[in-house]
Amino acid sequence: MIHNKKQSFFESFFSLLAPVTCVACGNNLLKHEKMFCTSCLYNLPRTNFHQTKENAVQQIFWGRVQIEEASSYFFFQKKSVFQNIIHQLKYHGNRDVGLIVGQLYAKELKEAHYFLDVDYVVPVPLHPKRLHERGYNQSEYFAKGLAEIFKLPSISDNLQRNIYTQTQTQKNKESRWENVKNAFTLKNTEQFANKHILLVDDVLTTGATLEACATAILLAENAKVSIATIALAQGI
Ligand SMILES: [Zn+2]
Questions:
Q1: Cα separations (Å) of 117 from 113, 141, 226?
Q2: Which domain holds residue 96?
Q3: Are 197 and 181 in the same domain?
Q4: pTM of the model
Q5: I want to staple 35 with a disulfide (CB 3.0 to 4.6 A). Which of 89, 100, 124, 143 is the partner?
Q6: Ligand 1 centroid – CA 25 distance (Å)
């Protein structure tokens, strides 16, 4: 016990001395900078889709499921420093990345009066087994960041993932859909009746997971679904 306490004391002591670095480029942050350096924040490859009618994210869902509005914060470009944002959030336990990115994006969206009639923010859920493996749901932190700025509830215990699926990274569009089409249900359909749900995820690729989630949500009476993701993968 004492040993652990000592260890955590020294750990926190040295983390205070260690320079805080930008989550994207890795350069040291200045005092007023938080998570991102000014240069990365400025150069982030924003889609600005919330300012584009019939944008590329909305088009992904055309003919598949009814989506009101949809947008992604930035383009996911492989080998760019911005890939680190997703990697830090997803594989390195840096949950605060999701929170801060959610806040930053929500400020831009709010200023543009986008997603204004949304009632709840809902993250794409992980299967309980995956949640146990990772320790947290990365999309939930993005949802929390968005919800905080929009002053809305973030609800992560209604939409459920019932089927444990393997990682989707290597799969094509058809097998991704086969993999997830029946994976999601609402625990309580009443809760989402007559509500406009902002469904959120980390990276949008084929849209199969979001389509399956939206289909489950739309079983609630008069429910509406909009979509926001941190990044949009390109060239897939
Ligand atoms: Zn940077």
A1: 9, 21, 10
A2: 45-233
A3: yes
A4: 0.89
A5: 100
A6: 4
